[in-house]
């Protein structure tokens, strides 16, 4: 049962953001599915204490919601977690109805040693071979079974970077739910992708507490209702009770209080796997060829990292040879950079945006194809 809605949360719902100004409330027959995905637990940083996932879990659960933990299996073998606390807390969490999702294996590329990717090396623009990816993923599954007593049912690619080999490997190993930052679709005969929509707490401060809450409520009301679900992303370093006097814990509580005050029983809190298994029935498997290769015209992934300073990377996936233009605009609409303009082969391409000479703020990356199709991504520069 959900907790009683606090007056503070109600104030935020109806005074900080006017839901009715966007559109009418959803029909009771179409509940909004809401997922909270928390990546990178626990961090290798041992300077911020306490090292526990329970404060965030308890705050979320008290409001009727669930959490999906993105766990790098190698964390179980690292010195900060050899005391078994993380493993025991995950066991408790899963037993309480939350989810532990496999977040790669170690979140470090074994080809270039960078931590921003793992299955596909963006430094050398090459994918790991099938046998290499299978070992990484399977080793992670074995650690899950050893330390948590479960086999994960979903997979979160490190840095949102993956390829068709990843999808095929996951399918062979019996993991059928995927979550990156591209689009809601089938990635293989059985692999279904339920991507994140946005993150609001990466660099949260008291000064932007209300603004970020407004942004989240606005996005949930518009994007979430249009798609029927909202997958909100968070990260580990900002969930510990000791961080900034529990700022993020207060923010998440206020958000859920506001959602409960507005939607009441018309919001459904689910884990990543639960939501994907419900939503995928509304999608056909037309995104896959007979040979199980991915079929998309193009996609522009969310930049990584985001927020960033001073550089960030954008991933473009093309089904066929395409003439594309990729530009970055300020929030005022002024073009500040052109990252690509020309003909590119089918496949995955990465483009770097260096904002060393730009002021802090929000920027828009826009990808346009020769036939006029386009896609945009919001990016946040914090210096």
Q: What does this entry look like structurally?
A:
It is built from 8 helices and 19 strands. It has 383 residues and is an alpha/beta fold. The protein folds into 2 domains: 29-282, Glycoside hydrolase/deacetylase (TIM Barrel), CATH 3.20.20; 298-381, Immunoglobulin-like, CATH 2.60.40.1930. Strands 1, 2, 3, 10, 11 and 12 form a 6-stranded parallel sheet that branches. A 4-stranded mixed sheet has the order 6-7-9-8, covered by helices on one side. α2 (54-61) runs parallel beside α7. The longest helix is centred in the middle third of the chain and has 19 residues, at 209-227. Residues 1-28 and 286-296 have low confidence and may be disordered.
Can I get a quick summary?
This protein has 383 residues and is α/β, with parallel strands linked by helices. It is built from eight helices and 19 strands. It has helices at 7-16, 54-61, 85-95, 130-147, 164-172, 209-227, 247-263, 272-279; strands at 32-41, 68-71, 99-102, 120-121, 126-127, 154-155, 177-178, 185-186, 192-193, 198-199, 229-235, 267-269, 298-300, 311-318, 322-330, 335-344, 347-354, 361-369, 374-381.
